[in-house]
Structure formats: C-alpha cells, structure tokens
Amino acid sequence: MAFAEEETTRYLGTNLIESCGDSEDGLAGWAPSGSCTLSAHADEDASLPSLAAALSAAAGGDDEGDDSDEDEFQQRAPRPSGRYVLAARRASDKDGLCRAVSRAPIRPNVTYRVAGWVGLGAAVDGSHAVHVEVRVDGGGRPVGGGVAVVESGKWGQIKGSFRVDCDEPPRHAKVYVHGPPAGVDLKVTTDLQVCAVNKIPRLRHLRKKADKVRKRDVVLKVSRRTDVDDDDTTASVAGAHIQVVQVQNSVPIGSCITKAGMQNPEYVDFFTKHFDWAVLENELKWYYTEAVRGQVSYADADELIDFCDRHGKPVRGHCIFWAVENSVQPWVRALSADQLRAAVEARLRGLVSRYAGRFPHYEVNNEMLHGAFYQQRLGDDINAHMFRETAQIDPAPALFVNDYNVESANDPNATPEKYVALVTDLQRRGAPVGGIGVQGHVTHPVGDIICDALDKLAVTGLPIWITELDVSAADESVRADDLEIVLREAFAHPAVEGIMLWGFMQGHMWRSHGQLVNADGKYTQAGNMFAGLRREWTSHARGKVDSIGNFKFRGFHGTYQVLLTTPAGEVKKRTFDVHKGDAPLVLDMDF
Question: Taking a C-beta distance cutoff of 8 angstroms, is the pair 260, 571 a contact?
C-alpha cells in the first residue's frame, strides 16, 4: 500500500493518457468504439480553445510556492495542440472513440480529473450532450467522467471527475467519448487529460480567498463616557483589557432535521451545538402533509418548527411543490387538469398562509430541471404562477429555485447554463425569484469544477445557497476530504450566502456513509473536520486598548460581542456587526 500511495503521489498533476502525437496514423492512440470511422485533423486557424489554467489548478502540479496563484497556473497550463480526432459514420449514440489510460494505474479512493474539449460537426441542428466516460477492467459500468452540451459546429469543455470504488486497483482503464445521435460527427482534442487531483494547492488557495472575501479589518475606537458638571465627556481607556467574541457568522450553516431524529438526545445535541439554520427533510412536503386527499396534517412540521423557534434556528421552507413526477403522491397524479389546478391553489393557500412570516426562504417547485409534472398538465406559466402566488400570500420570504447535479459537470439536464436559462424564463414571466439553490449531493468533488458552476450562476446577481449538501464514502478520511472541499469552495465564493447539510447522523440520513456523527454520538473524521472548520471560521480577539484608545483586529463578517474590563474590574458589553467592505471598519465604542 505504501508503494501504491508513493506512486499515486508521483503522478499527481500528470496526464495519465500518454502522448502519441507522433503516431503514424495521427490518431494519437485513439481507436473506434462501436461502429464508426476515425480520422486525424489539425485546426489551421488555431481556433481550438485552450484547456486553460483551471486544469493545472485542479490537477495540482508541483507543491512549491503558491500553486494556487492564477498567473502561475496560466504559465503551467498546457497549450492547445490544435489537433483533434473525428469520429464519423456513427451508427448509434453509443458509438465514438476510446483511449487507454496507460501511464500509471488507477488507484482506489483517489479522485481523478477528466478535462479536455469535444465538438460536433457543423451538419447538425441544435445541441447535443457529449459524454466522456472512464471504464475499468474491460468495460462494465462507467466509474465517472464528464459531460458537455455542445452546439452544432462548436466546441464544449469537458470538466469531470471519477473515483474507483473497489478493494484492489483495476488492471486496465479506458476513456470513451460518445453521446450524440447516430450520424452526428464527433470530435475530441488529442490533449484530453486524466489526472490525479492534488487538493493541497487548492485548499491553500481557498483559505486565502476566504480571508479576502469573508473578512474585514476592524478598528474599535474605545472610550468611557463620564459625567463632569452635568456635561457628557469621554475619557481614555488606554490599557484596558478587551475581548472580542464572534457570536454569529454572516454565512449561516444549517442542516435538515427529521421528527425521528429529534427523538435522539445525541442528535438534538449535535444539531443545537453546530448548526445555525434548519430545514425539514420531509415533513413539509406535500406528499407528507396530505398523503391522502383531503386529510391534511401539519402536526409533525409544527413540532419541528416550534423546536427551532425555541432554539433560535431559522427554518427554510422545503418545499411547496416538487416538479418530478415520481415524487408527486398518487392521488395528485390521478387528477384531471381542472382538479389539479384547484389542488395547487389549495396547497398554496393552505401552506403559505399557515406559516406566513415564519420562513425566511421557500423552495417553490423543487427540481424543475429534472421534472415538469405541473408544467406538462397546466401549461408553461404554472411554475412562474407558483412563485407569483406565493409572494402574493406571503411577501416576506425569498423564493428559491432548487436543483441537483448543477455543480457536478456530469448531468446534461442540469448544466449551470440551463439553470440560468430557467431562472431567466421565470423572471421574464414575472416570477420574483429570490435565490438559487444548489443541492450539493456530491460524489468525488473537484474544487474548481464546483467553483466554475458557482461563477456561472453568480451572473444572475441572485444569492446562492448550498441547500442539501452531503457526501458518501465508506472510507472516513475520503468522506472528510470530500466534505471539506465542498464546504471551503462554498464558503470562499462571494455569491454563496448560506450552506445547508442534508443530515449529519448515522441512521438519520438520506445517503449512507455520509454521517458526521455515528449513531452512538461519536464524531467521525468528517465530523471532527466540520467542527474544526466552524472554529476556523469564527473570529476571536483579545488584548489591551492602545495608547490612543484603539483596538484593532481582522475578523469574519458577522455579529460580535465585545467585553471591556475597566481598571476598576468592571466588565461592560457591547454588540456590533461587521459587514462586507474593502476599507477598514471604524466603530466608536463608548462604554
């Protein structure tokens, strides 16, 4: 095992697809997969896009200096070769190209990055999904890769990842490229990359980015108010002991909760200690509150919401509707169009009126990128209608879209571009969209792929929340690493305003092998990492007021309490907020 780890480390950042650029046929080692013919080409106009600095950022490279500096990445990034292989006369969508991953063995529990460019021939209308898949030991189910939705005659970037989940390293691995319909010509650049990901430079970069995005310099101008001859004056408190404690971060971190979980004292203890916000996993969903037509009960939801109110935990409203048909209860699916419209209006009035003013957020119609149950039956405007009517009944909450796989680069139905188009269409129809929910049910995450998706969503100008974050890995160290990657990417991104986990305790989670704490209350490696991040992202400072009455510190945005101990031993308190800003925040602090 030690040899395997050493070998994997040796190849961090190295393309495991060996260069065959001088091959006699010019195919650079690519072979047909299925029924098609291959030919080699060079782009004389150098119009092929560059793989860009992000490839080096994800792959790592040498570990000297600040490997996360963008200029250095640009210098190390491979230049585009201008060469590609064309697959023509394809008989089905499964036909395409394949290529061996031969420079080094693929190792279990190592995250690999797949990156490159794929294109379509010009003689085709519209856009199509191109899949890059990695298969091990002679085929079988793919272990991962990436997908790009490519327009006719253009190129699309593949940014994907994979990890092999097995006890022994596979003997062989191949990359397959396919996807468009039969007859559509398919292209792939010869410099496609498969690299083992080095997370260390990226994490170092994210710590620096978080310091820049989430922190601010603060100057407290401290004085003591005195009454002299009935005239208020201030006196210096130079040398007084001062302590600054952050009591709330501006980026809340929460979790879903369940009625069953709340029966467990260890569950309640972890939730109340470590989370700021809550969301009900199932208890507010329509299929839960009205499983049988006409029998509506909010008893379980009320119990959980009342608990959160008592503990000062805001609750997100999840969800009013769910667009995916198999998540709609049978009696709703059986309704006629007129009956369904009436049921939708009753659900809106019943739920939103009942909790008016209690939820800061609503997810209005869950997973519209993956389902269109209401739209297919009630028309294209129904989704926007749900937003408009919710805002009419309760104007206070921000109304969110919410979907999965947007950050994964492996789902052609859920690209960031399609998500932005959905939001734009809703807004065009008058829907008051107030935020974008990225669920975050991640598998083998790669930091810059997540960041790229968040960047694309941020162009809407809407706040982004990670709404259902979980990872699944039987190996505790892998689970902790995966969770840390996503948490740090989200926290360091300026458009992200909150993070919600989709559970935390063994036996009370939607996905297995995702727990932060075991059923007996013992923290896992992921739980210890999470608790450590919460401490890291909380600022405290202590010292003495200087000779001119100032106390300076740098802290995360949020709410603080300051404790001043006077020379007489009296302790006085004040509260203040640190908001975003480039210039130092200067606050007069009279005690």
Answer: no
**Residue whose tokens read 């083998």:** 444
Residue 228 and residue 262 share a domain: no
**pLDDT value at residue 124:** 77
* Nearest CA-CA partner of 538 in 330, 279, 251, 124: 251
DSSP code of residue 327? G
HSE on the CB side for 153, CA within 13 Å? 5
The last residue of one of the domains, among 160, 176, 197, is 197
Q: In terms of residue numbers, what domain contains 54?
A: 2-197
Same domain, 525 and 511: yes
Same domain, 191 and 207: no
- 109: alpha, beta or left, given left = phi > 0 and alpha = psi -120 to 50? left
Q: What's the rounded Cα separation, in Å, for the pair 536 and 396?
A: 33
Nearest-CA neighbor of 341 among 387, 393, 378?
378
CATH at residue 71: 2.60.120.260
How far is Cα 134 from Cα 256, in angstroms, rounded to an integer?
34
What CA dihedral angle connects 276, 282, 285 and 286, to 10 degrees? -160
Give the residue from 428, 447, 510 showing the smallest Cα distance to 54: 447
Alpha helices in 236-297 (DSSP H): 265-274, 286-289
Longest dimension (CA), the chain: 99
Q: Are residues 494 and 581 in the same domain?
A: no
Nearest alpha-carbon partner for 265 in 520, 532, 527: 520
Task: Tell me how far the alpha carbon of residue 533 is from its chain's centroid.
Answer: 16
b or e along 218-234 (b: 16 or more beta carbons within 10 Å of the residue's beta carbon)? bebebbbeeeeeeeeee
User: Which pLDDT score, from 0 to 100, does residue 516 have?
Assistant: 98
Are 185 and 273 in the same domain? no
d(CA 65, CA 344): 58
Contacts 24+ apart (CB under 8 A), 270-275: 270/504, 270/505, 270/516, 270/517, 270/521, 271/504, 272/311, 272/313, 274/504, 274/530, 274/531, 274/534, 275/313, 275/501, 275/504
Is 281 designated active site? Answer: no
Which of the residues 367, 468, 484, 489 is marked catalytic? Answer: 468
The helix or strand, by DSSP H or E, that contains position 340, with its residue range, turns out to be: helix 337-354
CATH of the domain at 229: 2.60.40.10
What's the count of helices (H) and strands (E) in the chain, helices before strands?
15, 27
d(CA 566, CA 239): 9
Per the listing, tokens 């600054």 go with: 244
φ/ψ of residue 200, rounded to 5: -60, -50
| The pLDDT value given to residue 67 | 43
Q: Which position has the token pair 């896992």?
A: 524
Residue 87 tokens, joined: 């697959």
Question: What would the two tokens of residue 514 be?
Answer: 């995702």
Question: Are 403 and 369 a contacting pair, CB within 8 Å?
Answer: yes
Using a cut of 0.85, tell me whether the model's pTM lies above it: yes
Profile the chain (591 residues) by mean pLDDT over runs of 10 residues: 49 76 74 96 60 42 42 40 90 95 87 94 88 84 89 92 85 93 94 92 97 98 72 71 97 98 96 98 98 98 98 98 98 98 98 98 98 98 98 98 96 97 98 98 95 98 98 96 98 98 97 96 97 98 95 98 87 95 95 84
SS3 182: coil
